[in-house]
């Protein structure tokens, strides 16, 4: 009798220990799940804050661009509202701007980029002449590039347009809507393609401003001495000297190559976060007399 009771007591103890172990394991698992969910919620909160911060900074940058001057506002005569960066730090040639702590802004006037829709633009040949391509190859690339986007069936050499390009691609016979065309044409020249994608856009206009050209494009189309001088002169936000202007106009007398700004901009914002970063890049059309005074015409 004593032995039976002792055995039953031992079994009960094992059951209690087993149930306690299961409950402990479940509690640990619930705690881990709760901790993971709290961490995920925190990361989502940080990302949302970074996204809102990027949108806010983009609007601030556009406000500064559209304003002749910014006057600080005072709340109830106490502390002034947060001041925006001075317009003097703004550049349109894609050099990063330290907008605020942990926030960088890049503004690229699209007239400073080469137009992918217009391969006959003089600066395309200037850029390709400085690559490792020979004249015959350059003629072929530019010819096929034009054929892919024009609507006729005439080949660039005067014959009938073939069914496929030399690289095996079909002719879209319409203006490029993305980087597809240049990627297909220059896919066998990765270094050149990387440069082209960096200094061109399908949204760029036929009129090109060398003042707004990004540094890689300036170095790609100008001699080193002239390129360095141009970059140095515009670094402080000043317009180019008369000597530089005459030098550029002597080299590029075409009417579509000039030194003015346009109303098409690519505005990019990068917000640093504790666990990474968040970037926002959009193409906008400034319309100062409209409400709102700009339109988003593309996302990059």
Question: Number of helical runs?
Answer: 8
Mean pLDDT: 86
Secondary structure: number of strands: 9
By helix and strand content, what is the structural category?
alpha/beta
Helix percentage range: 40-55%
Shape: extended
**β-strand amount:** 15-25%
Question: What is the radius of gyration?
Answer: 30 Å
Order of helices and strands: HEEEHHHHEEHHHEEEE
State the low-pLDDT regions, or none.
none
What separation lies between the terminal Cα atoms? Answer: 84 Å
| Spatial strand arrangement across the major sheet | 1-2-7-8-9
**Main beta sheet, described?**
5 strands, antiparallel
Tell me the layout of helices and strands:
Layout: H1 2-66, E1 97-100, E2 103-109, E3 114-115, H2 122-129, H3 135-149, H4 180-185, H5 190-199, E4 200-201, E5 208-209, H6 215-221, H7 224-234, H8 242-251, E6 257-258, E7 264-273, E8 276-286, E9 294-299
Parallel strand pairs: 3-4, 5-6
Antiparallel strand pairs: 1-2, 2-7, 7-8, 8-9
Helix pairs in contact: 6-7
What does this structure look like?
With 300 residues, this protein is an alpha/beta fold. It has eight helices and nine strands. The mean pLDDT is 86.
Summarize the structure.
With 300 residues, the chain is of the alpha/beta class. 44% of the residues lie in helices and 15% in strands.
Task: Give structural attributes.
300 residues; 5-stranded antiparallel sheet; alpha/beta; 44% helix; single chain
